[in-house]
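Q: What does the assembled structure look like for these inputs?
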Amino acid sequence: MTRFGKRQESLPDLVAEAARSALSAARLEAPDAIVVAAMNPEEFIGEGNFASQIATHLGFAHVPALRVETATSSGAAAVYTGFASVAAGLSRSVLVVGGEKMTHLPTPRVSELIGRSIDPHERSYGATMPALAGLITRALMAKTGVTLKEISQVAVKNHANGARNPYAHFRDPVSLDAVLESRIVADPLRLYHCCPISDGAAALVLTAEPAPVRIAGIGQGADTLAVRYRESLVSFRATQAAAKAAYRMAGFGPERVEVAEVHDAFAPFELIALEDLGLVPSGKAGRATLAGETAIDGRLPINPSGGLKARGHPLAGTGIAQIAEVFWQLLGEAHGHQVAARVGLAHSIGGLATNNWVTVLERTR
Amino acid sequence: MTKPPSELIPASRCTRCGRVVAPPTSYCPDHPVAMEPLSIEGYGEVVSFTTLHSPPEGFSSPLHLALVGLDGGARLFCHGAETKGLRVGSRVAVEEVDQVYYFSHLGVMDRARLFWRRAGDLEETVTAIVKSAVKRVWRRGGGEKV
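A:
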């Protein structure tokens, strides 16, 4: 994984940095196949045929490479693709690598490009990701009684965790007052409830050989592109379906999960995820967060890396970074922000929760 | 097919599951079956709303956006002149102006009129009153800061 944040390097260079560190940690010179995740290199950096470009850039022009895209969950989708390839016996080892480079563009342009993953009719009304997240936040508060203070505590907790993670975009803690007083982006959502625009890349190696950590379960869930077609705004069907599939494959449920990286692109999404994943009883996520249960020293640490909020969100890099983070946590290599866990979970949201993934990892020894 | 009256919202219904969506689509989002067209009344409840202070290019700030659950079943994105006093669950009227849907918060009197309209009385009169109220509210806001 590279450090996330504003980076001067090109995306191929960031991807190469992440790929080389993953290959060297896995003591693998060359993989059988490469899966590349990038949400929109065509628009962000003006590059196409990106899998071949990355393979060649890495010195693996002879290794079969393909690119996977499911909007902001592209990284998790790439891990799934690599996992399926190894599980099917098509490859013995797969390098999964992904990232995004965005900070060189003006913020309105980045928002517009990310917003293209929204239903075109809703976009024609000015709906952006923060706008839809604002609608969801207000509905969540009205329906479940979650308070702005509870939502804001997610950002406070994740910033505190990010301060301990050398890969994080933000390394400064923030106070509850600072979150509550930050400027309004999409009422009632404020600036500090939203993840930043980050550059960065992450990589991992999947192998058929015995390894200290295994993917116990991985699942995908889907929902309508249009938010107006959904019956509920306060839970994500795509997360629930992905979790169900991942737990079924694992043969166990949320009761064994001891650490999780969840997709907190907007702070209230972490609360929704905790309940959709079955990690916290329905209606309890806000109170559990405020009580410190999900803090790094709490009963169930959530986003010890700082999450999207503080580690940063280089789109297609995020899903891979989350799984790498859980891998390090299970191995005891999460320097500076280590928790005790044998089973961990990563949760990634694509678009406005149209294409979500849940991956469950388990230490094997 | 004749054009539906302007206070009606064009929508479509899945012939398998009965789901209603607006604007109309050819296929149900959850079933690969053709939808049948229908028109639904422009009244409903606010599912949620937000105000954008830095809206995307081409939209004036602040941009008031609401998701309205129409009584006829579909949910619709709407613009509005203001969100003052609006709550999740508020009754609103929805009307199309220049191919954009606008919501207007219905006051106690409007709701009373709608009740009587439902009772079958004064349909034409009440439609005209509510429509003019809707137009007045959005025009007052129309692109300007309220």
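Chain B has a mean pLDDT of 82.
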